[in-house]
Amino acid sequence: MLYQRTLRKPVTVAGIGLHSGKPAKLVFRPAPEGSGIHFVRKDLSGSPAIKVSADNVQATQLATTLGGKDFQVATIEHCLSSVAAYRIDNLTIELDGPEIPICDGSARDFAEKILAAGFVDQDQVRKYIYVTKPIMEGNEEKHVYVFPYNGLKVSATIDFTHPSIGKQELEIEINEKTFAREIAGARTFGFLKDAEVLRAKGLARGASLENAIVLDDTGIMNPEGLRYPDEFVRHKILDALGDLMTLGAPLLGHLVLYKAGHDLMNKMVKKLAHSTESVQYTELGSASPELPIDPNRPPS
Question: Which of 24, 70, 97, 111 has a 20 to 30 Å separation from 253 between CA atoms?
Fold first, then answer.
């Protein structure tokens, strides 16, 4: 059996908010088994909390935002991608404002802090959502599929007219090692021509060459260039892993993304969460031959 996991000790991540441009800090704290993942707004009276759930997603424009009564938690996807990759089931994430720190635009800082905190296995068995039939959300132009698979695999395709991006495709089996090596360092990206309009809408006010890949009409403006030749599609996978955390349980399936963003991912996660025909809950390590095998677990 695989058991639920939390952190061994609290750790802090600080920076600025990508969209607010204001200082932002969070503290990852261990949480009891069976409690799930919660954000807590320590800056507000009564320290209101909100559970990471697809039904609590309030906005998906350029980032995923959770909304409670009179408060929000914005840009959750980079942070949660690391929480997902390191199999954290129970966690309290305390914030001093409405937005998660953007750090360097990737998930690297979150991953490093989580690893530094260490892990504690808990007594409650970990339950997975296992996809038994293909599920689709979207249309021919943009879509998300989830197929049955004995693990978690992501296949992503993006297609931009910009010459520095173009069409990029990547398929990857997700586990702690592949996430750290291939996905965690991929940064968010944006276009210089969109900056003025976004800032007028209250978005991207904290964006800079320090925390995003910025593209002008001809190329990449960051003097250091790219971390991976296909960094753009890798970041889309990073975002999708974070959005998957709103499912409320880890997924066993093959996720296929075609030009999909936060909105389609949220719709797919809601479909998975409320499906009565295409998914089942399962515990790894059962003697039943019909249950999937964890790809991260070495053979016995």
Answer: 111
